[in-house]
Amino acid sequence: MKDKRTYTNLKEHGEDMSHENESKIKHEATEERGPGDLTLLTEQYKADLFKYQQREALHLKTQNQLDGTKAIVMEMAGTIRQIHTENENLKAEIARLQEEIQLIELQTKK
């Protein structure tokens, strides 16, 4: 039985065969993690949770802006109705005063 691989073909002489005796040191940061690794799942969960929190914050901000806009629109609609009513009352008062002016003019001509 051979301890080391030897060259069997002429073309293999340029390849380094010493890698067979080297040991590889894996660091936790560079170690490849599989899909079932708990730290990988935790990091993915944290990333997904962060994205969800950002979407939820944006939704709440938009909902608050919508509620504020609705309140402003309702207030403006009430003000517009009030102004419209006042305008109608003033038109009626103007018409009444014009009739009085015409009656007074007719009385002064006689």
How would you describe this structure in keywords?
single chain, 110 residues, mainly alpha, rod-shaped
What is the helical fraction, as a range of percent?
A: 55-70%
Written as H for each helix and E for each strand, in order along the chain, the element string is H
Structural class label: mainly alpha
Give me the number of helical elements: 1
Q: What is the averaged pLDDT score?
A: 83
Give me the count of strands: 0
Envelope shape: rod-shaped
Taking Cα atoms only, what radius of gyration do you get, to the nearest Å? 44 Å
Give the strand content: under 5%
Largest sheet: none
Distance between the termini: 145 Å
Poorly predicted residue ranges? none
Would you write up a description of this structure?
- The chain is mostly helical and 110 residues long.
- The protein has a domain of 73 residues.
- It is 65% helix and 0% strand.
Short description:
With 110 residues, the chain is an all-alpha fold. Helices cover 65% and strands 0% of the residues.
Architecture blueprint of SSEs:
Layout: H1 38-109
